[in-house]
Amino acid sequence: MLGTPPPACPVRLCGVTGYDGRINDVVYCHPAVRAEQDMAVVFFGGDVQDFPENMESHRDNKNYVKWNLESTAVLLHTYFPESHIVVVRPSRLTAPKLATFMEFVSSEMDQNRQ
């Protein structure tokens, strides 16, 4: 709607359906500055990155909670204010330290990338 302020940043979007019915959770930030062209920064989280509450509850990962997916989206938003920021949450966390993006890269159960 015209005159409606953009949503707060970041916005957590769970169960987003993409190409070929594949589903992932994402964290989104709208552009802070209007640009002539639409631009996007897509970031895939690292092995310990997750939502802050999940990182806080893990014995080891809580040491890195400041690098959670939402904080990372905000950080990227400050460096790329004209871009849509999309941070993709791993579809599976094994152990729960190893990130797997099953919807983007096929992998075996032992985390060997193919």
From TrEMBL:
<dbReference type="GO" id="GO:0005739">
    <property type="term" value="C:mitochondrion"/>
</dbReference>
<dbReference type="Pfam" id="PF10561">
    <property type="entry name" value="C2orf69"/>
</dbReference>
<protein>
    <submittedName>
        <fullName>Uncharacterized protein</fullName>
    </submittedName>
</protein>
<dbReference type="InterPro" id="IPR018881">
    <property type="entry name" value="C2orf69_mit"/>
</dbReference>
